[in-house]
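Figure 3 (text version): structure tokens given as input.
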């Protein structure tokens, strides 16, 4: 997804931190002037701590929670009470500048939404009876005719009724090469006309179009949390108040025994700074935001960090054949007439039946009928037989068109066997249960699939292939991709696919990749459901855990890489932040780490964690 990730620099936050820094420098330059130092401290600490002190008050008063902001605010106050003004202001400066960096980087990773919003124009040219008027996009209705010229952004999904154009879909699918579009082709909101001119009819309101669906999905994903984050949040819910109580006890109990109040007070404040789990708290969410935005930047939409993390754990993959491994645009190669009926008459009947289906073979048959300028026949009592075909009535005769073999196909066994041996898909046309026509179709493996499948196999991840197609056609595609013959399952209905997924799921952590429409039950049954090539398809966005906007299987491989890298970075961040937290706690308790050292190590760790988490995001830009 080619997008603009520019985010306004938080100059106010930076200026507040700089005021704290300047005040701190002035205090060190004029150490003997107590009134001046006090004034500098007052200005620097009040302004520099504005954001995290405000957050602390909010959490204590309204949510009754002890957060890291609360701990750091108390550390600032404690150091000031002890007269350690330089140390107190050092906490203010370093913590505020670190929080500013964290806030800015998180906003950068979340900027996917803002960049998508910018893809939709505010105004567009509407055509009524040949007259052009400029209207607000918010006032569009379905059925409106819009005129798009070179450079114009498409505001809503629709269908072209006039002209042709090269449409840049990189903002949605990640594909860099513009797609040629002409009459009857669909266009998506958020895409740009890079050449040519078209008139198109709006089929969905802007609020219901592709970009709006994507924005909703990204917002949902960023709100969901990975398991590691939930675990850390549960831990800090008890750890933060616990360490606060422990610090208070470290001050009170020894003070009552030894009367060295200041010594124990400094130790307690140092302990507060050292034990604050800031780095641990951000180790997971910042990484998740970075990974989700990195995926979105490549046209991969994830419904939550948990799904991306689970994708990194998969140990088997199921591909649906048609439209995923193959182009899903079968070519009609053969029509065998078995009765005294002309070829075009067979095509007219089959095409009229298939006008009601969205299956790839149905589209091929109906399109071929239209291309031959054959009129559509009146169809009644239409019904879809999942995984088998279409049944309907035409001129009081019952017709069936689909993959289920007819009783009287034996007479044509040799011709059918020849087509199957060439890897062709077979469909039978029946009139009142009598075979009247046999259709042969050929689909091709996608150009980029071989490399993607090879990369998956090199990782020793088993690949399974599901198809409703015949055995010969399935095996031919499997052989081309070097898929284990025992992993190829053919002549499958949607129910059979779902049951097989359930069976395989008992042995593997399973990802299922399909088109998101016919494979909806199987996608829902798998540990991870991935819908491919579904730009503009509502059903896929609803069903899948991960939606890949383009038709390239290599994007799925990239999503696995992102999931594994996210999991690895989260683990790194948690280990590093935990070890440093333990080191600081022990160092403070045995007297080897003072307050200044604790501040520098604590904030330095937080910066390190943020930068490590952002690697995924910056690599995707």
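Below: residues designed for each position.
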């Amino acid at each position: 997804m080619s997008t603009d990730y520019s985010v306004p620099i938080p100059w106010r936050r930076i200026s507040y931190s700089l005021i704290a820094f300047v005040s701190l420098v002035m205090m060190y330059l004029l150490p003997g002037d107590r009134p001046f130092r006090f004034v500098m401290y007052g200005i620097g600490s009040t302004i520099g701590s504005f954001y995290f002190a405000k957050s602390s008050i909010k959490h204590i008063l309204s949510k009754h929670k002890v957060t890291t902001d609360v701990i750091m605010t108390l550390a600032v106050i404690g150091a000031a009470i002890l007269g350690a003004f330089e140390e107190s202001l050092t906490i203010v400066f370093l913590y505020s500048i670190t929080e500013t960096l964290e806030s800015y980087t998180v906003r950068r990773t979340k900027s996917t939404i803002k960049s998508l919003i910018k893809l939709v124009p505010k105004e567009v040219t509407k055509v009524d009876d040949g007259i052009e008027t400029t209207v607000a996009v918010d006032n569009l209705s379905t059925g409106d005719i819009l005129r798009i010229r070179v450079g114009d952004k498409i505001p809503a999904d629709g269908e072209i009724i006039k002209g042709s154009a090269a449409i840049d879909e990189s903002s949605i699918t990640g594909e860099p090469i513009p797609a040629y579009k002409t009459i009857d082709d669909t266009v998506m909101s958020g895409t740009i006309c890079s050449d040519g001119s078209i008139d198109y009819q709006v089929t969905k309101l802007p609020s219901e179009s592709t970009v709006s669906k994507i924005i909703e999905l990204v917002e949902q994903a960023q709100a969901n949390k990975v398991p590691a984050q939930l675990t850390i949040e549960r831990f800090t819910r008890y750890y933060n108040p616990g360490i606060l109580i422990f610090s208070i006890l470290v001050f009170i109990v020894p003070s009552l025994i030894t009367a060295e109040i200041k010594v124990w007070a400094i130790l307690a404040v140092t302990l507060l700074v050292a034990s604050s789990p800031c780095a641990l708290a951000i180790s997971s969410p910042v990484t998740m935001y970075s990974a989700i935005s990195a995926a979105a930047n490549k046209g991969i939409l994830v419904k939550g960090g948990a799904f991306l993390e689970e994708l990194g754990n998969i140990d088997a993959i199921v591909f649906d054949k048609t439209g995923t491994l193959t182009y899903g645009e079968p070519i009609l190669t053969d029509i065998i007439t078995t009765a005294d009926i002309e070829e075009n008459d067979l095509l007219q009947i089959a095409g009229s039946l298939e006008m009601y289906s969205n299956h790839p073979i149905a589209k091929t048959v109906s399109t071929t009928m239209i291309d031959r300028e054959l009129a559509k026949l009146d169809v009644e009592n239409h019904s879809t037989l999942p995984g088998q075909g279409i049944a309907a009535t035409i001129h009081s005769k019952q017709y069936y068109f689909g993959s289920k073999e007819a009783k009287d196909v034996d007479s044509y066994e040799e011709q059918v066997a020849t087509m199957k041996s060439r890897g062709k898909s077979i469909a039978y046309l029946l009139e009142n249960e009598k075979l009247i026509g046999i259709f042969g179709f050929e689909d091709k493996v996608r150009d980029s699939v071989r490399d993607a499948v090879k990369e998956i196999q090199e990782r020793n991840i088993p690949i399974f292939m599901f198809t409703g197609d015949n055995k010969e056609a399935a095996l031919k595609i499997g052989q081309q991709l070097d898929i284990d013959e025992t992993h190829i399952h053919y002549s499958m209905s949607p129910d059979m696919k779902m049951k097989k997924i359930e069976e395989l799921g008992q042995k593997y952590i399973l990802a299922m990749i399909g088109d998101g429409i016919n494979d909806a039950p199987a996608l829902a049954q798998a540990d991870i459901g991935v819908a491919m090539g579904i730009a503009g398809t509502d059903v896929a966005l609803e069903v899948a855990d991960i939606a890949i906007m383009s038709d390239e299987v290599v994007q799925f491989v990239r999503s696995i890489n992102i999931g594994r890298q996210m999991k690895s970075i989260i683990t790194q961040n948690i280990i590093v932040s935990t070890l440093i937290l333990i080191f600081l706690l022990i160092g403070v308790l045995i007297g080897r780490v003072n307050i200044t050292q604790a501040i520098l190590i604590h904030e330095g760790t937080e910066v390190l964690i943020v930068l490590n988490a952002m690697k995924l995001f910056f690599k995707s830009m």
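The chain has 25 helices and 20 strands.
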